């Protein structure tokens, strides 16, 4: 903790509201225009509530109410709340992919915090890319900030069976395509799988990033596990509003505690829970904004030494509601305490070790003990080899064991349109041992690195009972997905990475225990193919897509924009 507390004249907002000049007079008069008095705004921390609510994002449907609850807490603690709506990233509706716009939200949020009289910020996010975008922004702006995660939705229900978003969609869609599920049943499932507001209730990207954010220290203790409709979620929002006011007086900023050790804690938590592969890209980008050190090799090293203890779909059996009742993230972190840097500070002014003290786990089947885990290693492995010189990843806990060491002939799709056109063609030369390969699906090839990495299994193989195959792409995969899917191959095929030169029939070898991904093609043949390759332009002649195409990094570097990386200071705005 810092010893010196701020006074009223030390606040950023004092430059807007506290001076005896015409500009401050104008700012105060405009605040009065909104119904506030000088007592409301002067000498009090101004808290920006960055709200990603939208009708286009059902996961955030409750954020209108949560914003009001945050305001209640801010008022209670003597602050002045200022709600600022931002672009939302609704995973299900936004095309071609929310990943294309993560950096745009990060830019908008950072500039909002810098341009307005914000002394501190509450970040209302939850759906996949909103969490990293908002934390990236708050880290770069480096003013006191707390994340209020959206929380997972209630468990799905269908004819007495519990359904998990995403995971069971893919599972039963396979059965539908195989002709084993009729349309009436499929429609019934559609009505029962998403029963409330909130994010996916599996350990998908949203739940993974919420857990990662809490372990980083960006939320109040226990905040990431609370189901969205639970009254505890409302109480957490109010408490966050109260706490952010104190953080302003304490001058506790993100870069004060978002250290390399904090990011290692975050990675460890994600690996222990069988978290989404998307966490790798986001955490690397977030670390870059904080000046922390994190790369793919460190991810893999931490995963190798971390036991897999979170029995949550898609890698396990249960859902986030069960996880919360079993003890939530605090319980899980207490079980892996020996692997954490317990002295890392968090937003409540206490260490992560303090925050998990006294946590209990009441269901060992949901959160396994440290000494009898579900698996000896964490949920994600990083692969390297001549097919992925800069790395690739696989969520091996969600794949069939038999495929973790596999070699087979490639069946190559040039892009997603080619995949859609041919995947169910009865004449497609494919069998259960084949390796499906998708090209042009990376950061530039997609563009935006869509969640196309869970390539569909050909219908004729589904009819034979095949439910998993080795699939390789430079795309991402939904955190709710499962299967032997190798993702994030870097460099991507669009920029001339080796994936671009794979041809039908080439033998590809996957060896997860050895962390290898090998294309068994002589180097001279690859050189010949490379010589005949021509790079194309991204199909964005103008606009944000053009900016994206010129500045986005590859997956192994977090897909941030080169001009947003780092911690170089930006001067406070002049107030004239």
What does this structure look like?
The protein has 21 helices and 14 strands. The model has no long low-confidence stretch (mean pLDDT 96). The strands form three sheets. It has an eight-stranded mixed sheet. The chain has helices at residues 14-17, 22-33, 38-41, 63-76, 102-115, 130-141, 167-177, 183-192, 205-216, 231-250, 254-257, 260-272, 278-290, 296-305, 320-326, 328-335, 352-356, 416-422, 459-462, 523-531, 543-551; strands at residues 46-51, 80-85, 120-125, 145-149, 156-158, 161-163, 381-385, 388-394, 405-413, 435-438, 470-473, 485-487, 507-511, 516-519. The longest helix has 20 residues, at 231-250.
Number of helices: 21
Derived from helix and strand composition plus strand pairing, the structural class reads alpha/beta
Cα end-to-end separation: 35 Å
Main CATH class of the largest domain? Alpha Beta
Quaternary structure type: single chain
Helix content estimate: 25-40%
The rounded Rg comes to: 24 Å
> What fraction strand?
5-15%
CATH topology descriptor of the largest domain: Rossmann fold
Strand order of the largest sheet: 7-8-12-11-10-9-13-14
Arithmetic mean of pLDDT = 96
Low-confidence stretches: none
């Amino acid at each position: 903790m810092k010893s010196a507390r701020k006074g009223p004249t030390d606040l950023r907002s004092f430059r807007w509201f506290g001076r005896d000049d015409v500009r401050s007079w104008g700012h105060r008069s405009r605040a009065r225009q909104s119904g506030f008095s000088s007592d409301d705004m002067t000498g009090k921390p101004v808290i920006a509530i960055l709200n990603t609510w939208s009708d286009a994002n059902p996961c955030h449907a409750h954020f209108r109410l949560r914003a009001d609850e945050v305001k209640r807490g801010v008022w209670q603690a003597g602050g002045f709340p200022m709600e600022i709506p931002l672009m939302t990233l609704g995973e299900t509706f936004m095309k071609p992919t929310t990943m294309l716009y993560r950096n745009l939200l990060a830019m908008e949020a950072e500039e909002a915090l810098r341009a307005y009289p914000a002394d501190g910020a509450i970040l209302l996010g939850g759906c996949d890319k909103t969490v990293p975008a908002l934390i990236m922004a708050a880290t770069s702006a480096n003013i006191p900030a707390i994340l209020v995660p959206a929380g997972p939705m209630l468990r799905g229900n269908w004819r007495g069976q519990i359904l998990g978003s995403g995971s069971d969609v893919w599972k039963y869609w396979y059965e539908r395509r195989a002709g084993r599920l009729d349309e009436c049943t499929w429609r019934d499932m559609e009505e029962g799988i998403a029963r409330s507001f909130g994010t996916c209730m599996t350990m998908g990207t949203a739940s993974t990033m919420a857990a990662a954010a809490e372990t980083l220290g960006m939320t109040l203790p226990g905040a990431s596990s609370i189901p969205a409709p639970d009254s505890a979620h409302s109480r957490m929002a109010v408490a966050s509003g109260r706490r952010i006011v104190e953080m302003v007086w304490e001058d506790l900023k993100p870069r004060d505690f978002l250290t390399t050790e904090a990011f290692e804690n975050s990675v460890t938590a994600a690996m222990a829970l069988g978290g989404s592969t998307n966490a790798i890209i986001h955490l690397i980008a977030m670390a870059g904004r904080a000046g922390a050190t994190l790369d793919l090799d460190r991810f893999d090293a931490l995963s190798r030494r971390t036991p897999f203890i979170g029995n949550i779909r898609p890698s396990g059996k249960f859902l986030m509601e069960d996880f919360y009742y079993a003890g939530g993230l605090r319980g899980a972190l207490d079980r892996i305490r020996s692997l954490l840097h317990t002295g890392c500070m968090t937003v409540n002014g206490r260490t992560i070790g303090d925050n998990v003290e006294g946590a209990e786990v009441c269901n060992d089947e949901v959160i396994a003990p440290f000494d009898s885990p579900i698996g000896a290693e964490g949920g994600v492995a990083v692969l390297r080899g001549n097919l992925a010189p800069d790395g690739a990843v696989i969520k091996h806990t969600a794949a069939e064991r038999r495929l973790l060491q596999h070699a087979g002939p490639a069946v190559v799709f040039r892009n997603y349109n080619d995949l859609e056109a041919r995947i169910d063609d009865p004449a497609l030369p494919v069998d259960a041992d084949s390796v499906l390969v998708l090209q042009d699906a990376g950061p530039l090839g997609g563009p935006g690195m869509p969640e196309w990495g869970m390539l569909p299994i050909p219908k004729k193989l589904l009819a034979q009972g095949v439910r998993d195959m080795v699939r390789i792409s430079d795309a991402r995969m939904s955190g709710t997905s499962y299967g032997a899917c190798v993702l994030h191959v870097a460099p991507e095929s669009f920029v001339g990475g080796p994936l671009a030169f794979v041809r039908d029939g080439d033998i590809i070898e996957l060896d997860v225990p050895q962390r290898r991904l090998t294309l068994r093609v002589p180097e001279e043949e690859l050189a010949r193919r490379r010589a005949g390759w021509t790079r194309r332009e991204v199909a964005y002649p103008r606009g944000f897509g053009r900016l994206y195409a010129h500045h986005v990094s590859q997956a192994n570097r977090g897909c941030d924009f080169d001009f947003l990386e780092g911690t170089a200071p930006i001067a406070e705005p002049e107030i004239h």
